[in-house]
Specification:
about 230 residues, mainly alpha, Tetracycline Repressor, domain 2, 2 domains, 9 helices, about 70% helix
Length: about 230
């Protein structure tokens, strides 16, 4: 046999099977990785397109799946490959928005060493959703669309307030709170409720609003010994 042949000898069968299995696995993983990247791109396109269409429709009408896939440049098949319904897409948008907002606020809070200043950064971050006209319009549109899902952006489990409350637990603990989880939840729900008021009234919060809400959030901290 030509020594340059790539065909292994019979004695190498077991090794060849192992090598062949490894090669097949590597090829399959590469194929799945490419498909996964493609699907992730489709999902992101659908999320971004839905936000765009919702913002355009505002609170006047709810977009159809056809409107969303057209804006994304995709097909109905692509939509239903990832979402069983439009409600599922809206829920994903809420989750995506909550993750981005919490990440932004956490980054801002990390800039402050004092717990009191971290609480103020938290308040500023929450109310920032009503500061800018475009951001406020988008948030309101998502909130309004979420009402049809039965788990609104500002109400119903899991809520944005619950996620935001987790960011307050550490500074509340440092402030000597006896029940930081409960206190953080109360402060978060009250602040998010006030955010909803600003969004619906289309009135951006002022510096005085931020000061007042920050003082309120700091007063919700129950000192050690206040609870049994």
């Amino acid at each position: 046999m030509n020594e340059n042949t790539i065909t292994p000898s019979r004695n190498d069968d077991s090794e060849d099977v192992a090598d062949g299995a490894d090669l097949a696995d590597r090829i399959a993983r590469r194929t799945l990785a490419r498909r996964g990247a493609h699907y992730a791109g489709e999902v992101r396109a659908l999320l971004d397109a839905a936000l765009q269409v919702m913002r355009r429709c505002g609170t006047a009408s709810r977009p159809r799946v056809a409107d969303i896939v057209a804006a994304a440049g995709l097909s109905n098949e692509a939509f239903y490959r990832h979402f069983r319904s439009k409600d599922a897409l809206v829920a994903a948008i809420m989750e995506d928005g909550a993750e981005r907002l919490c990440g932004y606020i956490a980054h801002q809070m990390a800039k402050e060493p004092a717990a009191e200043d971290q609480v103020r950064r938290w308040v500023e971050g929450v109310l920032s959703q009503a500061m800018d006209e475009e951001t406020a319009a988008t948030t309101l549109a998502v909130m309004w669309n979420a009402q049809s899902v039965g788990e609104g952006f500002l109400a119903g489990p899991p809520t944005i307030a619950d996620r935001l409350a987790t960011l307050l637990r550490e500074p509340y603990t440092r402030l000597g709170g006896a029940a930081p989880d409960l206190d953080a939840s109360l402060a978060a729900h009250a602040t998010v409720g006030r955010l909803a008021d600003h969004l619906w009234q289309r009135v951006p919060p002022t510096g005085a609003d931020i000061d007042r809400i920050t003082r309120f959030c700091l007063r919700t901290v129950s000192p050690e010994g206040a609870r049994e």
